[in-house]
UniProtKB/TrEMBL annotation:
Domain UspA, residue spans: 8-159
Gene3D superfamilies the record matches: HUPs
InterPro entries in alphabetical order: Rossmann-like_a/b/a_fold, Universal_stress_UspA, UspA
Family: Belongs to the universal stress protein A family.
Species assigned in the record: Sedimenticola selenatireducens
Name by which UniProt lists this protein: Universal stress protein
Length: 166
């Protein structure tokens, strides 16, 4: 028997071509009447960047900037979801019955996606990839590629070339 999809985690990298992945996540959520969580992970600063910032502002100033930045990202996600809804969903369909939830996490993307997927008991993780050549995945590795190896949940990887953002 196939597992029901009750909860879908869409991990967005916020690229200019990421709408295709969100479209797939929305389609699956609508079809299965599943809960949809839109997640974005903010990667940690490198040591050099952190030292540079610390030399120009106090920790309190940095925390205030960080909080403001997270709110800006949350607003951008909300705008993208609204724009997507207006442009791609039937006029009689609204997310009002089951609107996507927004999660913004900080840390290493693979670790945070896996943690949140477990926390919300996601049945499926949907994400895009910009890395298509085998050589580039061997040399660098993409978050999507790593998720295929480390996730204990199904991962649907959607190629993201040539689409609009979401």
């Amino acid at each position: 028997m196939l597992n029901e999809l009750k909860c879908i985690l869409y991990a967005s990298y916020f690229g200019s071509d990421s709408r295709k992945g969100f479209r797939m996540a929305v389609t699956l959520a609508r079809t299965n009447q599943a809960r949809l969580i839109f997640m974005h992970v903010i990667e940690p600063l490198g040591q050099r960047a952190e030292r540079l910032i610390n030399s120009y502002m106090t920790e309190a100033q940095f925390k205030a900037q960080e909080t403001e930045g997270i709110e800006i990202i949350r607003e951008e996600i909300t705008v993208r979801i609204q724009k997507f809804s207006a442009e791609e969903l039937p006029s009689d369909y609204e997310f009002s019955h089951n609107p996507p939830e927004c999660r913004i996490e900080q840390g290493r993307p693979v670790e945070q996606i896996i943690r949140v997927a477990k926390e919300i008991d996601a049945d499926l993780i949907v994400m895009g990839t910009r890395t298509h050549s085998a050589l580039s995945q061997i040399l660098v590795g993409s978050t999507a590629h790593q998720m295929l190896f480390y996730s204990d949940r199904p991962v649907l990887v959607v190629p993201m070339e040539g689409d609009h953002n979401c």
